[in-house]
Request: fold
Amino acid sequence: MQPFTVVTGLVAALDRANVDTDAIIPKQYLKSIKRTGFGPFLFDDWRYLDPGDLDIDPATRRANPDFVLNQPRYRGASILLARENFGCGSSREHAVWALADYGFRAVIAPGFADIFFNNSFKNGFLPIVLAPDEVDALFREAGAADYRLTLDLPAQTVTTPSGRVLRFDIDPFRKDCLVRGLDEIGLTLQQADAIRAYEARRRAEAPWLFA
Amino acid sequence: MAGRSSGRTPGGRTLYDKLWDAHVVADMGEGAALLYIDRHLVHEVTSPQAFDGLRLNGRKPWRLAANLAVADHNVPTTRRDSGIADPTSRAQVDALDSNCAEFGITEFRMSDPRQGIVHVIGPEQGATLPGMTVVCGDSHTSTHGAFGALAFGIGTSEVEHALATQTLVQKKARNMRVTVRGAVGPGITAKDIVLAVIGRIGTAGGTGCAIEFAGEAIAALSMEGRMTVCNMAIEAGARAGLIAVDATTVDYVKGRPFAPSGADWERAVAAWNELHSDADARFDREVEVDAASIKPQVTWGTSPEMVAPVDGRVPDPAAEADAVKRQGLERALTYMGLRPNMPIDEIAIDKVFIGSCTNSRIEDLRAAAGVVAGKRIAANVKLAMVVPGSGLVKRQAEQEGLDRVFRAAGFEWREPGCSMCLGMNADRLSPGERCASTSNRNFEGRQGQGGRTHLVSPAMAAAAAIAGRFVDVRSV
Ligand code: SF4
Reply:
C-alpha cells in the first residue's frame, strides 16, 4: 500500500451533501474484476453528458462543462472537499479506487459513511473529518485560484495557504498502517496463534458454529 | 481502561456489547479489536479483487466452511438457461465460479435451485444464525442482524482479510436503540416502519452506531419483516441493525439446512436465549417512535430520508431556511421531475419493481399478490415485474399460486436475483422513467441512468401498479 505522510495539493470543492457511492462510481463499472482503471469513470453521471460503460472510451464522450471537476482550474487536484455524509450507500470499494485512480489522495468532509471511511484506509487514501464550520471556511477559501492545502498525517494537521493550522483526529492503528503503508493481512497473520486459541475455545462453547 | 470500555456505557450489556465481547480475539486498544468472523457470504461483484489478492500473496482461505458464495447482482432474470448475454457480467460470474472452485468454497451456482440474493439465501439456508458475526462485501449485510447476529457490510480489502484470517480489525460502534412503541395500524408493514424511522433520524442518523430495533411493533414482526427493517439500517447510516432473539427467531431457524440439530440444537437455543440487551443496559442514543402514527410511506427524493406519508405532499424548497439543504431539495425535485407541494398520490408511475433483498421474501410476495388478485395493472404502467429473492422463494410462491395471480394481473414473473434494485443486469429504468420499487435505494441513477425511484412496501407497490399512481393501500 502507498504510504501517506505529507501531501500538499490542489483542492477541488464539491459542494454537495450525501455524495453516495453510486454517484462516485456507477454500477456498470463494478463489473470490472480489476482494482485499477476506474479514474476516468469517477462521478460518471455528473461528469459526462452521454452514458458510459466499461467498453466505451471516455475520450470519445462529451464532458459536462457544468461539473466542478471539469473546470480547468481543478486539473491535477489531489484533495477533495465535500459536505456531510460523504460516501454513503453501497460498500463498493471501487469508490475509493476511483477517487485514488483519478489522483485524489484525501477527502475532507464534516462526516463520512462508515464503510467508505473504513475502505479508504486500505488504499492509502485519507478521509479527514473536520468540524462543519471549519469545512465551511475551507469552502469559502477554496473559491480562490490555485487553492492548496498541506495534509500532514504524522502531525494530524491541515495547513491552509494563509498558514492556519487545523487539527484532525485519527485512530492510532489506522494512522500507523497508513503512514507506514502496512499490509493489514500480514499484520493480522502474526496473530495466528491467538486466532487458533479463540477458535479452540469457541468450538468447545458453541460447536454448531463450526459445523 | 482504554480499549474494551470504549462504546460501553455503565450498567448491563446491550445485545451489541454481548455479540462484540463474544468475538474479540485480541484487544487492540482505543476501542479496536481483532474480531472473529463466523460466517462470510461472498458474491461476484466485490470478491474478484480479493481472490486475486490471495493468489498474489500465496494465501489460502483460513476456514473454508465459514464461507458461502452465490452470484446475484449480474444474473439475468429471464431465459436463465441460455446464460448471461452481457460479456462483462458473464466474466464476473465466471470469475466467482472459478475462484470458488479453485479455493474450495461452497457456491450456489446460477443453475442451483437455491441460488438467490445473498441476503435472502443466508437466512433461508440457516447459514445465518443468532449470535454469529456475519460479513459480506455488501452494505445490506445489516439484514442478518434480524437474527440477533452482528452483521455488517465490508469492502473488498476486508473481504480478502476475512478470507485470509477469519477475522477483521474493527472499531467498536456506539449503541443506539430505536424503540417502536405500540402496534402499527392495519396495512402498515415493516417497510413503512423503517422508512418512517429513516425519515425521522436521517440517512446519517445512525452513523457510527449499531442500531438495535426494539419495542412491541418490532417484536410483533415476522422474521421477514425484521429482515426488512435491519436491511435498511444501513440507509440510516448504521453499519449494523440488530433485533433481540425470541421465539419467532428460533422457530424460523429450526430445521434449516445449515442450522444445528440434535443435542447441538438444544445447546444453541439455550445460548441464543441470552441474546437480548440487559434490562439495565444503557444506550448512547435512544429514539422512540409511536407505531400507531406510522402511515404508508413513499420516498419522493434521491435519498431514503426524503420520504413522506402517502397522504402527504412533496416539500417546498422555498420553505427551507438552510441553504445547503435547500439546494439539496431543489436538486432532488429537479432530478425526480416533481413540483413543490405536489400531493404524493398524484404522482403517476411508469414501472413497478417488486424484489430486492429488502422485500422479495415469500411474505412480501403474498402481501403484493393479495392486493393485485383479480385486478389488472393500469394502462400507463409499461412494466410491472416480480423478482423473487431466491429459487426457493420462487418455488414456494408457485406452489401457492402467487405467480398465476401476478401474471393474471399483468405482472412479469422472473427468475431470482438483484435485478432492477441496481440494474447491473439487463433490468433497468430508462432516463426519466418513474418506478414504484420495493428496494432500498433511490439514489440518482440507481435503477438506471436518469431513472426515478420511489421506495415503498410491496403492498404499496402493488396498489400503485393497479392505480397507475401512488394510492393509500389501506383504501383499496
Ligand atoms: S438486492 Fe439490491 S441492495 Fe440487495 S444485495 Fe442486491 S443489489 Fe444490493
About this structure: The longest strand of chain A covers residues 6-13. The helical segments of chain A are 21-24, 44-47, 94-102, 114-121, 132-141, 172-180, 184-189, 192-205. The beta strands of chain A are 6-13, 79-81, 106-109, 126-129, 148-152, 157-159, 165-167.
